[in-house]
Design brief:
- The structure holds 2 protein chains of 2 kinds.
- By secondary structure, chain A is mainly alpha-helical.
- Chain A has a two-stranded antiparallel ribbon. In chain A, strands 3-4 form a two-stranded antiparallel sheet.
- The longest helix of chain B is centred in the first third of the chain and has 26 residues.
- The radius of gyration of chain B is 18 Å and the shape is elongated.
- The chains are: A mainly alpha, B mainly alpha.
- Chains A and B meet through helix 3, helix 4, helix 10 and helix 12 of A and helix 1 and helix 2 of B.
Chain lengths: ~280, ~50
């Protein structure tokens, strides 16, 4: 399962960021695939990106003059969320993959959570409401509204968009200033923290994780627990990278369906299924 | 009694259908053009310049 997940993560990242011409020339893909959104957080200004970012799409719609219900973005959220829930985070998100790989670096004593996790875990909902929604509707920069989350926080945009574009495009590089340094600082902080703590951005800041978390309880893809076969050895709890209890696995908005509990169970009473929990 | 146990399959199906419906409404309202126009230009805010 571990190898399968890594393979899926790598393949999905490569396929959805496979526009090589963009990386070589410091440009981005301009074709019709960008009418659609990928399920994970994937900056559409990444030179390789062949589709749009769902959070970027939501902000683009909220940035319009007047207010319009952002049906197109909500449609992607409901579709991906109802089918997959936070399986997207665990298996299909490029920035999740980056954090997974960073956490494998064998330095520091690893931590599953930050101190005050029970408070900090709500940070992603604050980011979703204040930066993605309110910020994008009411924050103006000059004569246009700004996508506040992309502009002030998104580390995926810095890593997948800014760094490759600026390294290949001298004109853009010459314009980088204080804002770029701010975003670079955020990226560096998250990169360093990811080496010690498991997926800090996903657990505490990602607005897409907040959205998909709401769908976790009833999404099609679930981790099914056969309670009658369970010997309560708690190997699943020990293996869970986000420190969920047996009762919370699959149901909790924090479960990213990584499948480590499935691998760890000696009785094979946990498995991926569309059935859900007993 | 877990509320979700009995009705989970109906809820995710309804969610997926609602998602498809929202995508349709978004298409009719031209929202995909807005997304596409944003996505094909380098987003200066996203890369920390704008």
């Amino acid at each position: 399962m571990k190898r399968l997940r890594l393979t899926v993560q790598l393949l999905f990242t490569i396929v959805t960021n496979g526009y090589l011409y963009g990386f070589l020339n410091g440009k981005i893909y301009r074709g019709s695939l960008k009418y659609a959104c990928v399920p994970g957080l994937n900056c559409y200004s990444c030179p390789g990106a062949v589709a749009s970012c769902p959070i970027g799409a939501l902000q683009a719609l909220l940035n319009q003059r007047g207010f319009q219900v952002p049906f197109a973005a909500l449609g992607f959220f409901f579709l991906f969320g109802s089918l997959l829930g936070r399986f997207v985070c665990g298996w299909l998100c490029p920035f999740g993959l980056v954090q997974d790989l960073l956490h494998k670096i064998p330095v520091f004593q690893k931590k599953k959570r930050l101190p005050c996790h029970h408070v900090l875990k709500y940070g992603k909902y604050v980011v979703l409401v204040l930066l993605v929604c309110v910020g994008s509707m009411f924050l103006w920069g000059g004569f246009a509204k700004v996508p506040a989350f992309c502009k002030y926080l998104c580390p995926s945009g810095t890593l997948l968009g800014a760094l490759p574009l600026l390294s290949a495009n001298a004109a853009l590089r010459s314009q980088a200033g204080g804002l770029f340094l701010w975003k670079l600082g955020i990226l560096l902080a998250i990169v360093l923290l990811s080496v010690k703590v498991y997926r800090p951005f996903c657990q505490y800041l990602c607005p897409l994780g907040a959205v998909y978390g709401w769908f976790n309880r009833f999404s099609l893809v679930q981790i099914h627990w056969e309670q009658e076969r369970c010997v309560s050895c708690m190997a699943c709890e020990k293996a869970c990278p986000v420190a969920l209890s047996l009762r919370e696995i699959s149901r909790s908005p924090e479960c990213i369906r990584c499948g480590k509990c499935v691998d760890a169970c000696p009785e094979k009473c946990l498995h991926f299924s569309s059935k859900g929990r007993n | 009694m877990d509320f979700w146990k009995g009705c989970r399959q109906y809820v995710w199906t309804a969610g997926a259908v609602l998602g498809a419906l929202f995508l349709g409404i978004g298409a009719v309202q031209g929202q995909f053009d807005v997304i596409w126009k944003k996505a094909i230009m380098i987003c200066l805010e996203c890369i920390g310049i704008g």
